[in-house]
Amino acid sequence: MKSIDDLGNLSGKRVLIRCDFNVPLDGETITDDGRIRAALPTLKALREKGARVVIMAHLGRPKGAFNPKYSLAPVAGRLSELLDVRVALATDVVGASAAQTVDGLGDGDVALLENVRFEAAEESKDESERTALAEKYAAFGDIFISDGFGVVHRKQASVYDVAELLPNAAGYLVAKEIDVLRRLTETPERPFVVVLGGAKVADKLSVIDNLLKVADTLVIGGGMAFTFLKAQGYDIGGSLVDDSNLETCRGYIETAEAQGKEILLPVDVRVAEGMDFGARTVTGHVDVVDANAIPSDKMGLDIGPETEKLFAESITLAKTVFWNGPMGVFEIKELAGGTAAIAKALTQVDGLSVVGGGDSAAAVRTLGHSDDEFGHISTGGGASLEFLEGNELPGISVLEGSN
């Protein structure tokens, strides 16, 4: 991939850049601007080089039609504050407002097109429909920059097709994300510990397949841990389980043992009768029980204190750590202890600690950590997992294949 620094003189050039500004909102208030901040180094560099910056981004899932709920207006406002310059927001994506906004840019100015997912062709499976839309995007730029890592695993008009139509390069964010992920999979400093959580074991099977080849230790928590525990013959009560993958989990445990690697599972868990996720409350009292003694009328909702110590020790002794997925329902105070312990342990790693985007990135910020306490916080949970599964990322391959 080319980088911005390979593009030469950008003064007066219209640079079309795909960013990932899919930020969480409370009404019109952005509750986590991490993805916007992650784009600042690239945007500032383009401005300093005198480029006329035209940003494409999406927000939510408006299903191919205009919906004011998913307008990028709050993003334009926050970006204006962070860049300390007015960011002009077009009221459409490729219509008259977009054309007028782009035409009005001077050197160093910044414009934001409306939510690209207001255009039905943006996510179309029909290549000709995407190409037709990409041609409209390309009319706004002389050069295309890909800097929205959270969408590079998608074959979409603003990610893939437009890159085929213009000279292109990776922004600083995308280049850094790919560099970090390649270090994890190709040249990790050891011991290399992978921490996986989240609700469903099925979501992480391909990641486990691939990382079991390179990691020294797999630490398994979250809802997915209970399928592993049941695979070992434990009674898991009413805990979340994927019975269709019990044999697969047994196979992972046997493979790890045969290769001299370790799969760490919870030794104790926090349990309750249930929970009301909408109300952020648990049903009944939260108790701590051994992982092999979960009552039949209770469900595991977080790792326990002894497991926190076990997992933290493995993490802090590592030289490379990748973490994706919370250890429990961290949004509920009584069930945040496990995730908090993992986050704290990652801040103490003497080496590279990587938080793999998604819920994990949201968790560390919710728990009060700043981004600079970790080696790297990925802006794309789905994209990072796809990479770690060994899959091709269309938004990356198109950059690599065209230069």
Structure description:
Helices cover 35% and strands 17% of the residues. It has 403 residues and is α/β, with parallel strands linked by helices. The longest helix has 15 residues, at 34-48. The mean pLDDT is 95.
Helix content: 25-40%
| Structural class designation | alpha/beta
Name the beta content range. Answer: 15-25%
The strand count comes to 19
What is the fold's blueprint, element by element?
Elements: E1 14-18, E2 25-26, E3 29-30, H1 34-48, E4 52-56, H2 73-83, E5 87-89, H3 96-103, E6 110-112, H4 127-138, E7 143-146, H5 157-161, E8 168-170, H6 172-186, E9 192-196, H7 205-211, E10 217-220, H8 225-231, H9 246-258, E11 262-264, E12 268-272, E13 274-276, E14 281-283, E15 287-290, E16 299-303, H10 305-316, E17 320-324, H11 337-347, E18 352-355, H12 358-366, E19 376-377, H13 381-388, H14 394-401
Parallel strand pairs: 1-4, 1-7, 4-6, 5-6, 7-8, 9-10, 9-17, 10-11, 17-18, 18-19
Antiparallel strand pairs: 2-3, 12-15, 12-16, 13-14
Helix pairs in contact: 1-2, 8-9, 10-11
Give a concise summary:
By secondary structure, the chain is an alpha/beta fold. It has helices spanning 34-48, 73-83, 96-103, 127-138, 157-161, 172-186, 205-211, 225-231, 246-258, 305-316, 337-347, 358-366, 381-388, 394-401, and strands at residues 14-18, 25-26, 29-30, 52-56, 87-89, 110-112, 143-146, 168-170, 192-196, 217-220, 262-264, 268-272, 274-276, 281-283, 287-290, 299-303, 320-324, 352-355, 376-377.
Relevant terms:
403 residues, alpha/beta
